[in-house]
Amino acid sequence: MSIGRSARLFVLFAAVLLLGANRAAAQRGAGRGQGPVHYDIAKEVTVTGTIEDVRSVTGSGPGAGTHLTLKTSSETLNLALGPTRYMTQKKFALAKGDQIEVIGAKATVAGGEVLVVREIKKGSETMTFRDAKGFPMWSGRAGR
Questions:
Q1: For the stretch 22-55, what's the b/e string if a residue is b when 16 or more beta carbons lie within 10 angstroms of its beta carbon?
Q2: In angstroms, rounded to a whole number, what is the distance separating the alpha carbons of residues 79 and 50?
Q3: Which of 80, 90, 123, 134 is the most exposed place for a label (fewest CB within 10 A)?
Q4: Contact yes or no for 142/135 (Cβ under 8 A)
Q5: Residues near 57 by beta carbon (within 8 Å), at least 6 away in sequence
């Protein structure tokens, strides 16, 4: 009878492990197509304009990081750049009044539309936030 009980305990233990592994696998990961911010290169646009506001959104969600308000000739856009620490590490600074050219793709983040930035040109400087496939440069997955 002890073999039967051991077998039942083993099956129960294995079921618990499999259930836990299944739940872990179901979690959404960071990166293109898997995280809350999907960068769709088919929707890329290039816009130019003047920065009206630079702000840092704190937290750990998809809306966290550096955001800009950009005034173009036809509209005002909310730009999501990426982690503030990434810009700091690259020594790339943006300020109100800067004229910039942006390549990005529109996405919905936290219920609002943003232009997720792939690249910004300011004068002779260019800062790349995502590679040509849309992978974040700070994630270690760029170029894959």
A1: eeeeeeeeebbeeeebbbeeeebeebebebeebe
A2: 12
A3: 123
A4: yes
A5: 63, 64, 65, 66, 67
User: Residue 56 is encoded by which pair of tokens?
Assistant: 């840092």
Q: Locate the domains of the chain by residue range.
A: 1-30, 41-137
How far, rounded to the nearest angstrom, does the alpha carbon of residue 132 sit from its chain's CA centroid?
A: 14
Could you tell me which CATH number the domain at 41-137 has?
2.40.50.140
User: Which of 113, 114, 90, 89 is closest to 102 using CA atoms?
Assistant: 114
Q: Any bridge partners for residue 49, and if so which?
A: 100
pLDDT digit string, tens, across residues 7-65: 554 554 444 444 443 333 333 334 434 444 678 989 999 999 999 999 998 877 667 78
Distance of CA 60 to the CA centre of its chain: 11
Global confidence as pTM: 0.70
